[in-house]
Amino acid sequence: MELKIFTFNPIQVxxxxxxxxxxxxxxxxxxxxxxxxxxxxxxxxxxxNLQLKIYLNTHLHFDHIFGSPFIAQEFGISAWASDGDIHxxxxxxxxxxxxxxxxKEKIPPLGRILSDGDTITFGQxxxxxxxxxxxxxxxxxxxxxxxxxxxxxxxxxxGSIGRTDFPDSCHEALITNLREKILTLPPETIVYPGHDRxxxxxxxxxxxxxLE
Length: 212
Known about the structure:
By secondary structure, the protein is of the alpha+beta class. It has a single domain, classed as Ribonuclease Z/Hydroxyacylglutathione hydrolase-like (Metallo-beta-lactamase, Chain A, 4-Layer Sandwich), CATH 3.60.15. It has seven helices and 14 strands. The radius of gyration is 16 Å and the shape is globular. The chain starts with a strand and ends in a 5-residue tail after the last helix.
């Protein structure tokens, strides 16, 4: 499997493009806001002859879904995600304005509602959805057992965890879910978060003081 990491928009969201030898691809969290970012993503997909089959969101905070209308228009697919954060997508313009940004597009409805344990396939690859509410009610992580890699969204970062100061966040739930569902994964699992650099389960178990 191949992996390309794009970092988009002023909030520096990591958007992950995955594909295998079949040419089928999956995209996780399309944060592209500006035309140049959209063009970079489209050009990479087209120039590598990839077929974008699946678009996943770890959660529906605005910085992770800026590119959802673009993906629907350009590739004809809507995001798969939990419906626990639908209100964030519905009120996106108001929320974005609080950060000094402007956003006038409408987020498309979800193409599929995902729950804990659901399996997603593209090409010959398999992704398992893991519910990790806390940062947001609908937060999902995506685990690929065959490759021992995890896309954690904003639930887990290198040496840190996601913010829990939003009105619908829950610190206790996030800690419990990380300890019971994420830290139990193989220690060599590589964690690709929604922002900043990657880490491993082993490193977080040893060094993340939030999870001690």
